[in-house]
């Protein structure tokens, strides 16, 4: 599968962002935008309007759940998919690819 849309990756831990970016880049040539805290993630979300958002639940300033709440009011058409944690790498990649195939925005 080849994906070339915008993806926002928000996590306060650099090694997690690095790991996920390696997986994401296997999907094609997405425009990957990174945020290091929740406030930055919300600002980037409002400005860039990414098609896919991957959020850490526990981040400084704003957590992932708070960002979901705020982003839903910014973009009411966004839909929420299941969190990807506690699954194998293959399951996460498969879920991510299926989500990207859909037409509507998804927030993780």
Spatial strand order of the main sheet: 2-1-3-5-4
From the coordinates shown, what is the CATH architecture? 3-Layer(aba) Sandwich
Total count of strands: 5
Order of helices and strands: EHEHEHEHE
The CATH first-level class comes to: Alpha Beta
- CATH-assigned fold name: Rossmann fold
- The shape is globular
What's the mean pLDDT score? 76
Main sheet record: 5 strands, parallel
- What structural class results from the helix and strand content? alpha/beta
Give the low-confidence spans: none
DSSP helical segment count: 4
Binned, the helix content reads 40-55%
Distance between the termini: 19 Å
CATH homologous superfamily assignment:
Response regulator
Strand content: 15-25%
Topology:
Layout: E1 6-10, H1 14-25, E2 31-35, H2 38-48, E3 52-55, H3 64-74, E4 79-80, H4 89-101, E5 106-107
Parallel strand pairs: 1-2, 1-3, 3-5, 4-5
Helix pairs in contact: 2-3
Any overview of this molecule?
This protein is α/β, with parallel strands linked by helices and 108 residues long. The protein has helices at 14-25, 38-48, 64-74, 89-101; strands at residues 6-10, 31-35, 52-55, 79-80, 106-107. A five-stranded parallel β-sheet has the order 2-1-3-5-4, with helices on both faces. Helix 1 (14-25) links the parallel strand 1 and strand 2. The longest helix has 13 residues, at 89-101. The two termini are 19 Å apart.
What are the defining features of this structure?
108 residues; 4 helices; 5 strands; five-stranded parallel sheet; alpha/beta; Rossmann fold
Give a brief rundown of this model:
The protein has 4 helices and 5 strands.
